[in-house]
Write a structure and sequence with these properties.
By secondary structure, the protein is an all-alpha fold. It is 72% helix and 0% strand.
């Protein structure tokens, strides 16, 4: 442990500010481009939803909180603070970024030619593979386990550049994991069914639980560098590690549970309304409609007057046939 990395006193919440020139520059540039895209879309006659723009700025605010605020400093000396930043970077920030739909905004703001190029990229076989749970879910599990149960944390404390690489990896992995599972930014053949999205979030709870329970139950410090960096202040190493495990277990699983409930609600709603072709509810409704009023008739068989007339006409044809 380098002497310069040891914190003699707890960071002052009101005075601590971590300056990250690279991250800050990227955030400012990307936000400027996003706002410019919104302006271009509106000039083209497309009303970009305000909720998407709000999601983008929420993601940026959470990045500032995680990297530049006192949490950025505390995460260098407290395992539990690192875990809070970890969950924000790998789950919450990517979630809001996907809800902001920057890819769809790019396609909208660049006109028909840009839209075709974006769709061509999204339809590429390699891109479709990378942005699928087949890749995203194993990456998510690998990121959690490899950075918390292998001694990686001590190396990251010793080498600040490794900590920056770790946080960047969380962000990228979280975005790849969330992209096909949240919203509808990836359209066409990459659109996932509700059962697959539900199963992906359910399986993602496994690594959260494994890492959290292991950190809580292990009687030896897996990352003693955190306690060594505090010069006597704060909790003991095992108390800090146990708190980090509890945050990972309850916080990680809690976030996944919220997403599970959202997908379950969407799934039930889609079944009830007969959306998403291929599900059993839609197929049964289609079969019933075809039998009662025929394939060529329009309208709702249950409450549409035109459909009722078509139904009666169908009955008359059946009677004449008999």
């Amino acid at each position: 442990m380098h002497p310069s990395s040891v914190a003699a006193d707890p960071p002052d919440i009101l005075q601590t500010w971590v300056f990250t020139p690279v991250v800050t520059t990227l955030m400012v540039l990307s936000t400027a481009l996003y706002v410019y895209g919104v302006v271009r879309a509106r000039r083209a006659g497309v009303r970009w939803p305000i909720s998407h723009t709000v999601s983008w700025f929420l993601a940026m605010a959470l990045l500032v909180f995680s990297v530049n605020s006192v949490m950025g400093e505390l995460s260098k000396h407290l395992f539990w603070a690192h875990m809070v930043v970890h969950l924000i970077l790998i789950t919450v920030v990517p979630l809001f970024l996907v809800l902001a739909q920057p890819i769809r905004l790019l396609a909208t703001a660049t006109g028909p030619d840009g839209d075709r190029r974006v769709r061509a990229v999204l339809g590429n076989r390699a891109v479709r593979l990378i942005t699928s749970p087949v890749v995203g879910l194993p990456l998510y599990a690998f990121a959690l386990i490899s950075t918390h149960l292998t001694g990686f944390q001590d190396l990251a404390i010793e080498h600040p550049w490794l900590k920056s690489l770790e946080y960047t990896g969380y962000f990228v992995v979280g975005w790849i994991f969330m992209l096909p599972l949240v919203g509808n930014e990836l359209c066409g053949p990459t659109k996932l069914s509700h059962p697959l999205r539900f199963a992906s979030f359910l399986l993602a709870m496994g690594p959260d639980t494994l890492v959290g329970v292991t950190l809580m139950m292990t009687s030896t410090e897996l990352a003693p560098g955190y306690a060594a960096s505090r010069a006597g202040w704060g909790p003991t190493g095992l108390e800090d590690q146990s708190a980090a495990g509890a945050i990972m277990w309850f916080g990680g699983d809690g976030l996944m549970m919220v997403l599970l409930l959202v997908v379950a609600f969407q799934w039930i709603t889609a079944e009830a309304t007969g959306k998403r072709g291929g599900n059993m509810g839609a197929w049964l409704d289609s079969a019933r409609r075809s039998t009662l009023i025929g394939d060529d008739a329009d309208g709702d068989v249950d409450d549409d007057e035109a459909a009722l007339a078509a139904y009666n006409a169908r009955l008359r044809e059946m009677n004449r046939g008999h």
